[in-house]
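Aggregate trends can hide what the representation actually does to any particular protein. In the encoding step, the backbone of a single protein was reduced to a row of integers, each denoting a local shape. The record that follows shows the chain in one-letter code together with its fold in token form.

***
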Amino acid sequence: MELSVVICTFNGASKLPKLLDSLSAQKEASDLPWEIVVIDNNSTDNTASVVASCKENWRKDIPLKYFFEQRQGLAFARRCAIAKTEASLIGFLDDDTCPNEDWVCEILKFAEKHPQAGAFGSEISPVFEVSPPDGFNRIAPLFAIIKRGKKPFIYAKRPGVLPAGAGMVIRKDAWLAHVPEIPVFTGVSGTSLSNKGEDVETLSYIRDGGWEVWHNPAMKISHYIPAVRLERNYMVRLCHSVGTNRFPLRMSRYKAWQRAFILPAYILNDLRKLIIYTSKNADLIDADIVSTCEFVLLRDTCLSPIYHLIRFLRSDD
């Protein structure tokens, strides 16, 4: 196999049939060497039986495989995929995404044209159940909505600016050479957002290992955003998780001796951004949900070193 399309799912029984149908209908892909792999991340619904039912009438030219990963967390599900597949390219889809009919073809075309690309991400368009709040585009990337122009480009080595995990494709050689077996962040675990950051962690390892990381807008997927994810509680929790996890993500890029010099610069810059934002938007922080989210993101980024120091001290007790 040249490509394994991997669907990591938790309790995704109701969503998988639509996604599998879209993959079955991939345009001009019947003669290409690819497969579909479902990684069931410790689901408690009937995910396994849904996949088994789909396999009964599945097309013979595209293998459909199922594996169960008991360790809860998206990072573990993805490591299971790396261990279970033999393809040279691994394309990851979430169970609430849907690829365009030429997504598989565009992956293989891009990979052939760019052999130094260790990873490359898709353009991701939202499908909203309800209308998002005004100004939502300012925080849209936090919701795995990626619109970055019509031309492919290499992501510069700026911290945090990388493809989303949904729709990303990784060369297995790049993963095996640079991504450690034990992740710092376990990723979304069930409904918990506290360990988000696994995608940035993984892609940072690959980029720091000397591989190129690209955005490829020809690979297009849609991402369903249910109403619950546009509720205030979820949006604030998401920004809190992203903010508090920035410290370890940043420090993972540096050697131990460098961190003592780098950390003060990050702290001062983050504090500067928070002060400027608060002074300019004081009247909006409580009244406007997007402004609230931006404030929480900046505030908890500043608090991230303290938050993880407390976690470290508690783990030693």
User: Anything to note?
Assistant: The longest helix spans residues 289-316. The two ends are 48 Å apart (CA to CA). The chain has two domains: 3-230, 234-316. The chain has a mean pLDDT of 92.
